[in-house]
Amino acid sequence: MTTSPPPFRDPALPFGKRIDDLLARLTLDERIAMLHQFAPAVERLGIGPFRTGQEALHGVAWMGPATVFPQAVGLGASWNEDLVRRVGEAVGTEARAMRSRDDRVGLNVWAPTVNLLRHPLWGRGEEGYSEDPVLTTAIAVAYTRGLRGDHPVYWRTAPVLKHWLAHNNETLRDTSSASVRPRVLHEYDLRAFRGAVEAGAVAGVMPAYNLVNGRPNHVSPHLSEHLRTWTDEELLVCSDAGAPTNLVESEKYFDTHEEATAAALRAGVDSFTDHGTDASVVTGRIRRALEQGLLSEPDIDTAVRRHLSVRFRLGEFDPGLDPYAGTTLRDFDTGEHRALAQEAAEQAIVLLKNDGMLPLAEGTRIAVVGLLADECKTDWYSGSLIRRSTALDGLRERFGAENVTFAEGVDRVRLKCSTGWLQVPRAPAGGEERAVEGALDPALLTGRTDLPPLTTGSEPTELALIDWGGGTLTLRAPDGRYLSAGADGFVRASADRPGGWVVQETFTLESRGEESLLRHTGTGGYVGVTADGTVEVAAEGEGFTIEFLERGEEAVTRAAAAADVVVVVAGNDPHINGRETEDRTTLALPPHQERLWRAARDANPRTALALVSAYPYAVADAHAELPALLWSAHGGQAAGTALARVLAGDVSPAGRLPQTWYAADADLPDLFDYDIIGSRQTYLYFGGSPLYPFGHGLGYSSFAYEDLAAERDGDLLHVALTVTNTGPVDAGEVVQLYTRAVDPPVLRPSRQLAAHRRVHLAAGAAQRLEFRLPLSELGFWDVAHARWAVAPGTYELLAGASSADIRLTASVRAEGDPLAARPVREAGLDAASYDEQRGTEIVDRTRTSGDAVTPADGADEGQLVFRDCDFGEDGVRSVTVETSGGGSVELTWGATATTVAVTPAGGPYDYATRTAPFTASGVHDLAVRLRGSVRLARLTFPSAPNPRNTTR
User: For this structure, is 274 an active site residue?
Assistant: First the structure.
């Protein structure tokens, strides 16, 4: 007798019905188990285990060797959606290929990161694409489409966007709150997520560690109010690692883990990444929340349905129909992927300045110098390099080894203490490098203990000292291994490179008279010496004197003087001073590297500075004094080849800056200030003069822009222009189209990217480009009426080569919706819907929804301004404030002022209403001053009696 397969195995049925059937077959315990990152198998139904979360930001990460593409910010610098889509396809294919060998490789990929690069000191800037939401959306859509694949039913991988929402600081990242006003929320932060979700290639999102408006992102009402309204697809919301526990432990937002877990699940978190592979902690919390009535089974079923939806789309239940199921290792590290990695690295290079020095002629004698000249750096979210190309490698290959000399520019030192010179013993042959290959959580890896520790004695070891800025040093032994603290506390020359979640290879110097203490930054301890002369990290440190045998600039000077040109390769190590968990403190290039380019320039004025970094630098002096500057993010496995081809002119650079490069730290707002409008942040609102503007980048050719035409067709704007390569070489150009409201009713961006196109044109060739823009792109969030609105008026369309290099301008007229005054008498005022503010922050009205406003932390008072408030012809005679906390609320319009005293009563969520006399009529601006700890949620204005309707 033949048994028919259950409906959930029937591919003829729609996914929804199959999921209904499978849900009904799962026991409660089996459903609860699926809510942890590591969902176990359900063997009785023939269902395998499933893991959410496979890092794949610019290649498959943490699972061993893989093709490594440029960092995400480098992909953003390409401004090329076709390229990025192909990169996504390659990464998704390699994930499938690696899974064919190792089923620990997941297909629910946690990528891309679409947090906007609002602040250049953010430590994780390397993970994002741009400071602009339109460019970020374009690149994110391309990458996720590549990851997803183009089959109408089955997905190659299931991408999850990171990190929801408004997340741009590592300092206090799990306890700080971003104060995000409605305009910034709708015009900026939400837009980066919305476009990618609406494009249909996103399987879910990951909430960020931080809070927004006083409420943790893992219980954000925006998940249901916005995210899930953008698509009919089920979206899987995966928590960030450990974040559910943070709701109680660090954030103290809930008293118990049962309350916290239930609140996160009800808010929309479907998969809990917590306590590593041990699911028992999370599942226990869920069971107890059920028992306590904090959750219902339908709450659990909703999350499980989203989990299963992803698995069905990935073809798990239809292996015979899944078009990607046949992917094997023959599809891994292919020639096509290698060529694509090089193409991506070439397209990510931005030429910042060129006074005719580049490209370099054949036969040029080149000195390539600098701390990154012979490095191919990876970051925390890189795979392990299968092959690597440094700038030195690339230049030797392109120009001939006989024409290329090298000086790293490290300081050569010896260290001495009371027991003798610091010595690195000879390492035994063999041994294994510490690596993250195949590590599901490389954060758990510790320092090596299989090599002999350092000692002290009569024979000194010469060490290479590098100062990475901020006093952070690395020390490298003659065999190329870095000094590192092992898990047993002893110091060894054991690391091939700095790395790991807690970097064990960095130190700082602390002055102690004529000596210095060597502090190990990973542990906080000090380098000391045991009684038998072994070097360790301990609470008490040994005093060292440092003997400099050679300064780095001396070696650079020798190499530079003997060459025709010098290429200084400077930048950052992605594991040091600016990375996940650590924000930068300055835009300045580290002093050690500043010394190197100055020494090179002094010895040879034909010096180019090639910055290879995860973020912008303020290099105004270098711009003023050097004939050529370039920038690239860490370019992956082909970085050196790509740089050499650009320097040689084999490729005309056409990368463009995806974020503003400011001239100095003084141009930056506070790291925690998320109000890009009020504090004039990013190219959208910045009123100063940047060092290099958003969208900037040069090439080896020139381009003419002509015949800009714009016309309105219903709800669309049709824009067209002709671009011509007027230079002598074939080259790429990124045509950028911006919009600007000419006479806006509220503060609007000075210009805002609406579209772009990267084209490659032969010398003398021309191309007509056409753009179709929804009229709604001209709009803004109207806080007075809580809607998206296009104000009537004139709008400029600006076409150019950067946000500051505008070549053509056209105007269009939009009728739009007339912007009425705020109907405050009928609708009242939500405190967070202000037009302007000073010294305030938005906080949570309740733990589940709503906003309130309070004086900013550390401020005695704050002020809100509401423009064009319509109190009616008959006016109002009183105001009712809804508040918690204590202090006062002062209302002012014209010469009239009313103060409402607020007496503390209960906790921050215990709101009460208080009414006071307040007389106003007509349309006026209203100023509201908050003092003390008061939290203002809302203002209402009861109507005044109409004397014409009064009976006697």
Answer: no
Residue 46 CB coordination number (10 Å)? 11
Residue of 583, 645, 573 lying closest to 613 (CA atoms): 573
Catalytic option among 240, 274, 667, 675: 240
* pLDDT tens digits along 447-457: 778 899 999 99
Query: How many CA atoms, within 13 angstroms, populate the side-chain half-sphere of residue 659?
Result: 34
Report pTM: 0.97
Q: How does strand 211-212 pair with strand 215-216?
A: antiparallel
> What's the token pair of residue 510?
């602390």
Question: Which phi and psi angles does 180 have, rounded to 5°?
Answer: -120, 105
Report the alpha-carbon distance of residue 40 to residue 37 in Å, rounded: 9
C-beta of residue 539 within 8 angstroms of C-beta of residue 502: no
Reply yes or no on whether the pLDDT at 446 is more than 70. no
Both tokens of residue 29? Answer: 């315990």
- Over residues 723-735, the pLDDT tens digits come to 999 999 999 999 9
* Residue range 880-896, pLDDT digits in tens: 999 999 999 999 998 88
**Helical (H) or strand (E) element with 97:** helix 81-101
Neighbours of 886 (CB within 10 A): 15
Cis peptide before 359 (omega within 30 of 0): yes
> From CA 537, how far away is CA 517, in angstroms rounded?
11
pLDDT digits over 576-613, tens only?
999 999 999 999 999 999 999 999 999 999 999 999 99
Cα separations (Å) of 426 from 167, 454, 598?
46, 10, 36
Q: Which residues pair with 609 in a beta bridge?
A: 568, 629
Side chain identity at 747, as an amino acid letter? Answer: L
